[in-house]
Amino acid sequence: MISSDLSLNHARQLQLAAQGLLRPLRRKALFDDLLASIRQMSLLQIDTIHVVARSPYLVLFSRLGDYPPEWLEQALAQKQLFEYWAHEACFIPIEDYPLLRHRMLNPAALGWKYNQAWMDQHHQEITGLLEHIRERGPVRSADFDAPPGQKPGWWSWKPHKRHLENLFSAGELMVTERRNFQRVYDLRQKIMPQWDDRLHALSEEDAVQQMLERSAASLGIFHPSWLADYYRLKRAPVATYLAQRLEQGLVRAVQVEKLGELYVHHTRYSQLENPQTATHTAILSPFDPLVWHRKRASELFNFDYRLECYTPEAKRQFGYFVLPILHRGALKGRLDARMLRKERVLQVRGLWLEPGTRISQQLLDDLPRALTNFARWQGAESVRLEALPPELAHRLPTVWSTGPDSD
Fold first, then answer.
1. Of 177, 271, 315, 337, which residue is most buried, by most CB within 10 angstroms?
2. What secondary structure does DSSP assign to 61-89, as a single string?
3. Above 60 in pLDDT, residue 406?
4. DSSP letters spanning 11-25
5. CA distance 55 to 49
6. Which of 26, 59, 16, 17 is nearest to 323 (CA)?
7. 216: Cβ contacts below 8 Å, ≥ 6 apart
């Protein structure tokens, strides 16, 4: 008989296993591993901040280890992935296109991501842009000049970029590839010529049910309040979903130490009886699905985390782009890192351990190794720790090479 009472560590192991972060990959990653990892997470969030490797590449590195980053663009160009608004802008397995199509058909519900007034005001120009793409092929925003006198700025988009982004949100354009991480847009009909809304589109109700199912599988164990956030669902029928899955035996209620009642997805039932030990240590992206829902990270991992890149420097507690540190089943710290690409150095400007973290030999061994692998994958030849907490001072090196003999 399987016990309904789980320790907090056991609950964490279930979610880490569901996310592909319980144990490291013990062999060289293959291209198919990248696709399998994205399918396991359901979504791979996109972000352009580049102080270290951009987030989607880093999320995959945390799971696959050393792999060629160009595989991600290859998967997109081969139409095995597509881009759209899911949690935020995400890479999504192409087979899940039907789940998001209803959002494209009602883009006004996306809020700031779509502006109907702009589309109406610039109807003739947008029609001309679509005809240009139809006749001459894919385009980038960079292919069009800004109007004379337009001031630069984060949201000071030139008209053609606004046109492209609105057409993307409406599903008229898709991202066919990325060049230097810039979106390249083409007509949906060219990328998915067989798609027919009358034959293939799901109702919003059916799509939401499937997104809740994807969320539950990718979380492994969850509180009802965690489910809707995964795809940023509004007014999702979580209670109805749970009642149906409980009746079908596809979800099971468990009592978890300190957290009370949570639910386990059927793909994790075997681990209820045979828990697996977490052995993975990795540097995570701030946009990793494990931590992107800050409340869930706080409740399940006791990890209070906030991204401070939009906080004025004087008010930051830690740093601009602070990366969580996963160590053998727990989030035990964070670091403020930057890749100095010309110098080929990974600069760690600050490193902090969570209160109460025990300084074990495993931690002292795993942390430098994880930093070395993280740095080497990005082309760094050395790691430089510029600030250490007192409990690690004199117990870790401050500079070391990432060469093959440094593991």
1. 337
2. HHHH-S--THHHHHHHHTTSEEEEESSSE
3. no
4. HHHHHHHHHT-SS--
5. 7
6. 59
7. 222, 227, 245, 251, 263, 265
What token pair was written down for 297?
A: 């990270």
Residue type, position 151, single letter:
K
CA 320 – CA 312 distance, rounded (Å): 9
- For residue 29, give both structure tokens: 């990653």
pTM: 0.94
Cα dihedral sign, 72-75-79-85: negative
Angstrom distance (rounded) from CA 148 to CA 159:
12
> Secondary structure of the chain: what % helix, strand, coil (to 5)?
45, 20, 40
Q: How far apart are CA 100 and CA 207, in angstroms?
A: 7
Tokens standing for 8?
């907090």
Using one digit for the tens of pLDDT, what is the confidence trace for 119-151? 999 999 999 999 999 999 999 998 987 666 555
Residue type, 115: N
Q: Strands 251-256 and 5-6, how do they pair?
A: parallel
Alpha-carbon torsion (145, 148, 151, 156), positive or negative: negative
Residue with tokens 């150095």: 345
More confident residue, 246 or 407: 246
Cα separation of 193 and 195, whole Å? 6
- Which has the closest alpha carbon to 387: 349, 353, 355, 359? 349
Cite the DSSP H helix spans in 192-318: 197-200, 204-219, 224-227, 238-248, 269-273, 294-301
Which run of H or of E encompasses 60?
A: helix 55-64
Question: Residue 314: pLDDT band by 50, 70, 90 thresholds?
Answer: confident
